Write the structure tokens for this entry.
Amino acid sequence: MKKLLTIVLTFCALMTAAAVQGQSLLKTHVETGDIEGVAEGELAVYKAIPYAQPPIGNLRWKAPQPAKSWEGVRKADEFGPMPPQPTRPGRTADMMSEDCLYLGIVTPAMSANDRLPVLVWIHGGGFQTEWYGGDMWRNLAQRGIVVVSIEYRTGALGFMAHPELTKENPEGHSGNYGILDQIFALQWVQRNITNFGGDPSKVTIAGESAGAISCSLLCGSPLAKGLFHGCISQSGGSFAPWSDAPRSLGLDASQKGAEQQGLAFQKHLKKKNLKQMRQMDPMLLCDGNVGFAGFWPCVDGYVITDDQYRLYERGEYNDVPIIVMTNSDEGALFAPGNMTAENFQKSVKGIFGDWADEALKYYPGNNDDEAWHGFGDAFRDMGFAWPSYAWVNLQTKTGKSPAYAAFLAQPSEVSFSQDPRRRGVAHADDIMYLNSHFIMQNDKYPIEAAVSEIMQQYWVNFIKTGNPNAKGLPYWPTFDDSKPTTMQFSNGASLIMRPNREQIDFVERYYKAKREETESQRKSK
């Protein structure tokens, strides 16, 4: 009886110790103080950790500064505010603040010694909207990785360049504050993630849309060297040429061009100088009622040193393993519902100029329905599919790390695009496959759930090893443009040749001509 009691007590002690160990990471330490998260099942969740000082007052439109220390234990049980952005139902001004530089962490680690691989998620939103708190990827954390989701400044607060800002900066640059935030957060991860059971030598960055574009910029930025070891891009890349004019569709801006936009913004606000703009309510700079939008990263020679296409041609980038994915009908989310054949053809001529007739061969619009699809397909290829192809193709030619191409084409009645003319997977629909939206409704969407499961397995394998392949999954080779090496996710997973080849090749020719034209103009000045 005593022996049995001893066994029971020993077992209870072990179970108690395991429970304590399992909950040990609900409290940990970062460089600025002790911090406490919340338990969600077997996961420890830290919802708001400040990685930089609030960029307010004189810190508006400046590089992020180190967060200040605190005393006692800081509770991270509520998400930080959204960055100022256009309001809409469910996202009101009281939910937003310029004090937004926080990150969230979800960890399954049982101790700080676990050294689990790390995923750092960068949200999308056209560099104007969205929030780090919506994409915490708890389901991926349950598969044995630490997940970090970071916030960064958006809109005018994150990306306005201005001559006065350039003059006051010791390095002579302005704009790109949102990208500097991302780099600052990645530096914080390198210094602190071990305290959450993460391995700083196994960090993968990932993002969707503007988050994917951010990832490509981080891959090209010398400031981000060594801060990550893999990259996953979902619908985005920054490989268009640039000029000294304000950004336009298909043509990015240099700092000089972005400064012109900043001056136009100042005039629009009826302010005399930067000092007056720094005194403004942040919502008056970023709310939809401002009537002035479109701030974007610029080639400043510091964060972004050149046309990314040229950087990759020269092999001047952070060479890490990549997965680059696009969706089959990205443009369905952006095509105007009232698009007419007449308006479409005017748009094509305005965008492509002398290339318009050839563009209409690949994106016809002889009637209103054809025009709607033509607009969506052109938007898909110029905004997402071609940059993704350029990225994976250039790295295959000039890099040493593996590059994998993916194409999401799963038919589904569920989509962020509500237009019945949609033919495939619209922009942002991929999020539902990664956040387990379909897996949690497996009985209703069994095929989508199965595809979601396959995708998540590939993604987690890649995050853990730099290679998506593992036993039980269709083999996924690295990209080879001459072979069926693009992994298509549709009713399972299978290899195909690069999709929409003729359209992508046309965009490649068009961008090559634009790049040569803008470079010639710069040299002639």
In short: The domain at 332-525 is CATH 3.40.50.1820 (Rossmann fold). The radius of gyration is 24 Å.
